[in-house]
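User: Protein folding is very new to me. Would you mind checking the protein record under this note? It all follows right here:
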Amino acid sequence: IFIVSAARSGSGTISLDAATTTVDGIAVTKATTEGQFTSAGPQYTTLSCAFVSVPTGSGAVTVQAGYDRSVPARIAVYRVVNRPGAGGNQADAGSASSTSTSVAVNDTTIAVDQFWLGVCCSIVGGALTPPSGVTEDVQGAVSINIASFCSRDMQGTSSTPTDTWSGASGFRSAASWSFG
């Protein structure tokens, strides 16, 4: 199980807490890279990814995401099957922030037989247009702001794409991870 999260705060940086982020009571492992950004204002966003192995065929699972303090957040949960060893940690990751109408992450390499997870958080709100070539799995509110969660299936060829989220002008941050 993979958990991608977007959290924001008006009063200091935030961190996903692996010890209180659980799947059926099992603590997750947090990916090494966690994107933390500050805008003018200030507004703080944190984009995180975590993972844990649970028995296949276990049916519904309960997912709980915890942070180092109480903040508005949104998560997307992904189930990856028949990939033993996938998620030992990220194979690669990248993140960026912008105050224009778009933000691009262009440094996450996805090797053959790896998959990709990405997220963008827009402080200004309003709908986001996801990167081309990805599946936008969910777009919804993080407090009064918007988060767009996206994925790519297992890749047949290696690539380092430029993934650009766009929308209204204002602060936004984005992060992506590849896993083998």
